[in-house]
Amino acid sequence: MAIEIRSLKFYPNLNCAITDAYRTHIYNSLVRNCTYEALAETIHKGYACFLHVISGHTNKFDGLIELNDHNSRITHIKRYIGFCLHELESSYYSAFAHARYIFSAIVGESLVSLSSFPVKKADIPECIALYNQCKNTDLVNYYAGWECTSLDNVKIRLHLAFLYDATNKDFVDFVHHACSNYFRKHNSPYALSGTRKLIETFKQLVAIYKDPDSIILSISPENVSNSFENILHLDLLEVKLKTNSNALRNLIRNHYPSKVMLYKEIFVESKLIDEPIRKIVVPTLKSLKNSNKSISSGGGLTKETVVRLTSGIPLDIPNQQAFDIIQNRLRHDILHIKNHSLCLVHKVLNKDKAINSAITTGQIKPPPSHGSNLNGGYKGAENYPYGRNNIVNTIATFYHYGFKGVRGYISFLSSKDNELSNDELVKELNLPTHETIYPFLLLLVHEHPQLVPSSFQDWDLFDTDGRLVGFKETNGVMVISTFKERRGKTKSALILPCTRLSKLIVAMLIEHTKYCREYLRSIGDDNWRKLLLVTSSINKKPVPIKLVRRDHNYYGSLFKNFEKSISKVKGTWVLKNNENYNTYVSLRALRSTIAVSKYIETSSLDIFHETLGHTKSYYELVNAYLPDVLQKYVQERDIRIFQNTVIYLSMKDSPYLLEVLDANIVDADDFFTRHGFDVDNLSLNSKRNNIYDSLEILISVPLLQIMIYIITLDDFSIAKLDINPLTLEKWKTLSSYVITHIESSINNLTKFKVNKHVIDAYNVASNHKLTNLILR
User: Fold this and answer.
1) Which top-level group of life is the source organism from (predicted)?
2) Which residue, 144, 171, 194, sits at the end of a domain?
C-alpha cells in the first residue's frame, strides 16, 4: 500500500527525525521557490517522511553533510527520488519536480531547471537501489497506514498513527482487524462516518489515559463503562464551549450513543471483547421547549399538537360532538398545510417559467479570458452587465456554463455594485433545494400518506438503462414506484396509483430537477437516475435529497411560510396576517394528522393502517401514530364526566354545588341529559322496567378501560373511592353488562354480535388496564 502524502498530516511524529534548524531552513526555501504555499507544505511533508524512513527511530537528520558535500547531496537526492517513485508511487515528472525543489532548498538557491538538475531519468534504477539500501521497512509500513474496504468496494483510510504512537503495533493491528471485519459489511457513507467517530473515541481515550497499558485496558470489559463516562464528560465540556443551541441535543441523542453503538458492534458483537461487566451509561434527553420547528421522518403527532387539538372542548356536549370538533381541527390542519404547499409550488413553477424565458433572451457572459471579469480588471467588462440588477443575463450565463462553470464563479456571475452571494444566486437561479422541493413532498404525502421519507430518498426515476421506473404508466394509470423501509435491513416495493394532483406534482418535480439531472448525466455521475436532486451551491454538483429526523437549518425559512393562515381569493393566494397559525410542519406530522383524522372519522384500525400503508398492526405501531396523549384526553374526559355525575348526585341540594362542578360545564341539566343521566330518578335514562332497553353507548378504548376497572373493584378499593354506593352499583351493573356482552360475542355465546371495531377497542383496553382511578 502506497504512502499518501495527504494522510501524513495525521502523523504526530512526522517531524521527529529532522532537527528544528534544518526543517526551518528547508521549509523557508520551499516557500520562496514554490508558486503557492500548499505546494511547499506538500513537498515538506513528503520530505520529512522520507527522512524518518531512512534515519530510523533514534537518529535526527541535521543535513550538515548534505549542505557541505556535493557528492553526499547528490546521493541524498537520488535516495529521495527513489522514495518518491517506490513509496509514494509518484510519476517520473512529479518525483523529479519535488526533488528539484528539495535540491534547491538544500543549496539555498532558486529552483534549478530540469536541464541543470544533476540527476537524470537514466539514474532511476540507481535511485531506487540507493533508497532500498537504507530504508526502514517498519517505518514504511507505519507511514503506509491502515485502511478498510466497504461493502461497495470503497477504500477508507484509518488514521491510527496517534494510537500506534501511544500504544503499540499489536493493539493497532487488533483495532484494524476489527474495523476491517465490521466496515466491509456496510456501504461507504456509513463506513466513513463510523471510522471518524471511532477514531475520535480513541483520541479521547489517549487524552484521558496517558500510558500505553491504561489505553489498551480502557476498552476491556472491566473498564469500558468508566472509559465512556469519561468520554461523555469530555463531550459535555466541549458542548459547553459551543454556541450552537442544538449541540447538547445532538450529543445526547446522536453523537455519544453512536460511539457506544460502534464499540459494541465492532468489538463486543464480533466476540473480540466480552460484554462489559457494568452496563455502559447512555443518557437520554427530554424534548426541548420551544423547539417546534423541526423535521421528523417517523410517525406520530407531537404532544403539543394533540393538546392544541383537544383544548377548549366543553364537557357538556356528547362525546361524538367532541370528536367532531377534533376532526374539524384536523381537517383544518391538513387544509392549512396543503394550501401553503400549493402556494409555494406555484412560486417555484412561476420562477421556472421566468428562468426558461431568461435562458433564451439573456446575454451569455464570455469566459474571463475574453475580458469579462470585473474583479480581474479586464478591459471591456462594462459591456457585460450582470448581477442583481441584470439577473436575466446572470441566469442565461449560469445555464450556459453549468455548475462549477469557471474559476471564481460567484464573482463571474456578478458585476460591480451588483454582487450576489452564493445563497442569493441559488435562489435567483431557482435551483432545486431542500426548501423548494419540500412543499412538493408535503403535497405528495397529502395525496399518498403511505409515502415515508425513505421512499423519497430511494426514489429512482430511471434505471441503469435509462428507462423510466419511478413514474410510469401501468395499465393506463400513472403510478409512483419506489421503496419503503421495513423493520430490519429489508426494503419493500411501494407502488401507488397517482391521483390527479399527485400526477401533476411528480411531473412538476421532474421538470424542476431536470437541469440537475442532465448535468449529472453529462459528467457520468450515477445519481442522475434519482428523481429528487438538490444543491446548496453553484460550485457543487447536485446530490440526492437527504431527509433528517430532527432540526434542519435548510427548513428554517420554509416554516415561516406556514405561520399565517392562507387562502385563495379570485385565483390569487392571500395571506391573512391577523390569523396566527402555529402548526407543526413535517412529513411525519402530516402523515399522522391524516391517519388520525381517518381513524376518528371511521373508528377503524383497518382503515387507519391502510391509510399509512402498514401491512400489519402491532401495539408499538399503533401507539406511535395514536399517541397516549390523545387516549388520555378521552380517558380523562370520561373520568371527569363520571366524577361530575357523582359530585352532582352527592351535592345536588348544596348551595356550593356550582363551585365544585367542572368549570367547563355550562349547563348542568344539559350536561346530564346529553350524557344519559336522569338525575331526578337517580338512574340512567329509561322509562321502561329494563334500564338498558333504550340505552345507547358510544364505545371507546378509555370507556372500556374504566368499565373493566370498575367491575374488578373489591370492597377495600370501593371504600377508598368514597362514591355513593347506589351510583357505583349502577355503573358496575352497566359495566358488567357491556363487558359480558362483548366477551360473549367474542366467544360466540350470543347471536347479537358486536362489530370488529368494538372487539379491537376491547382488546386494546384489556391489554392496557387502569391501575387506579382518582376523583378530583
Assistant:
1) Bacteria
2) 144
d(CA 405, CA 402) in angstroms, rounded, equals 5
pLDDT exceeding 90 applies to what percent of the chain? 20
Asked if 672 and 680 touch (Cβ cutoff 8 Å), the reply is no
DSSP 574-643: EEEEEEE-----SHHHHHHHHHHHHHHHH--HHHHHHHHT-SS--HHHHHHHS-HHHHHHHHHHHHHHHH
Count of other CB atoms within 10 angstroms of residue 394: 27
> Residues 109, 151: one domain?
no
* CA-to-CA separations, 747 to 604, 737, 751, 757, 772, in angstroms, rounded: 21, 15, 11, 16, 28
Cell numbers linked to 211:
500510558
Alpha carbons within 13 angstroms on the beta-carbon side of residue 597 total 17
Judge whether 80 and 50 are in contact, CB under 8 Å.
yes
Angle at the Cα of 728 (from 724 to 731), degrees rounded to 5?
Answer: 145
Phi/psi at 394 (5° precision) = -60, -45
405 with 479, same domain? Answer: no
pLDDT at 486: 58
pLDDT given at position 378: 39
Count structural domains, the chain: 5
Residues 111 and 224 in one domain: no
Helix (H, G, I), strand (E, B) or coil at 409: helix
Query: How is residue 120 annotated by DSSP?
Result: -
Return d(Cα 187, Cα 151) in angstroms, integer.
Answer: 5
- The answer to whether 704 and 635 are in contact (CB under 8 A) is no
Q: Does the residue 284 lie in any domain?
A: no
pLDDT at 611 over 80: no
d(CA 473, CA 46): 59
pLDDT at 50: 92
Instruction: Tell me, letter by letter, the H, E, C secondary structure of 341-357.
Output: HHHHHHHHHHHHHHHHH
Return the C-alpha cell found at 222.
472491566
The three grid cell numbers given for residue 500, joined into one nine-digit string: 390527479
* Cell representation of residue 678: 336522569
Residues 490 and 586 grouped into a single domain: yes
For residues 235 and 281, give the distance between their C-alpha atoms in angstroms, rounded to a whole number: 14
Tell me: do 391 and 509 sit in the same domain: no
Spell out the residues 6+ positions from residue 285 whose beta carbon is closer than 8 angstroms to its own.
248, 249, 252, 253
Q: What are the angstrom distances between the C-alpha of 140 and each of 62, 322, 716?
A: 21, 77, 82
In this prediction, residue 693 carries a pLDDT of: 47
Q: What pairs with residue 472 in β-bridges?
A: 479
Beta bridge partners of 568: 573
d(CA 95, CA 127): 11
Mean pLDDT of 5-14: 90
Both 447 and 331 in one domain: the answer is: yes
User: Which three three-digit cell numbers place residue 32?
Assistant: 520562496
Whole-angstrom distance, CA of residue 760 vs CA of residue 107? 89
CA within 13 Å, CB half, 497: 4
Rounded to 10 deg, the angle between the 605-612 and 587-602 helix axes is 150
Alpha carbons 238 and 429: distance in angstroms, whole number: 39
Q: Collapsing DSSP states into helix, strand and coil, what is residue 311?
A: coil
User: Is the domain of 585 the same as that of 551?
Assistant: yes
Nearest to 310 by CA among 633, 776, 608: 633
| Residue numbers of the domain that contains 391 | 362-428
Alpha-carbon span 9 to 5, nearest angstrom: 8
Q: What is the mean pLDDT of residues 342-359?
A: 89
Cα separation, 391 vs 706, in Å, equals 67
Cα 210 to its chain centre, rounded Å, is 36
Q: What cell does 764 get?
A: 386494546
Is the domain of 479 the same as that of 610?
yes
Cell numbers found for residue 384 = 457585460
Query: How far is it, in rounded angstroms, from Cα 197 to Cα 186?
Result: 15
Has residue 567 got a pLDDT over 80?
no
Rounded to two decimals, the pTM is 0.50
